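Dear colleagues,

As part of the handover before I leave the project, I'm documenting each prediction I ran so the next person doesn't have to rerun anything. This entry is a single chain, and its sequence is reproduced below.
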Amino acid sequence: MMDLTPLDVRKKKDDLRRTMRGYDPAQVDGFLDLVADRLDALVQEEVRLKEQVKLLRERLTGFEERERALNEALIAAQELREEARQQADRQAGLRLREADQQAEKVVGEARRAAEDSERALAQLHARRASFLRGMRSLLDRFLEEVSYEEARLATGDAEYPPSQDGGEGE
């Protein structure tokens, strides 16, 4: 298909031969002018539409680039979110392990403290028992002394025994 311009249509008027029995030249010329005007309008519309298509394609390319950039940003954000979640999981695991270690340490110290307290309590019980035995022994000697003195009193021997420091009793 050959391109036909409005100028080609206007020039065609001069190229057509006039005959006796042909169409009315004024009508043909009017029609050719109408066709040329319409063709001119269509050519201008085509130019305008091509320019609009060009602009729309440029905008589309810009939108596609933005879409690609947004997709990349979205993917990067998702990767960053996943990385942050994994980091948080790692930190939580580390803190949990640290807390477990700290708890084991505290429990161990508490057990040692309880064992130390039990040993100290056992030592206190032993010292108490020793003290009570000593006290019983002392009280037994006092009771023997009291019994001895009561027996002397009952027998009438009221004299005091000589004191141990070498003097006479009172």
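The chain has a mean pLDDT of 86. The helical segments are 6-15, 25-155.

All the best with the project,
I.
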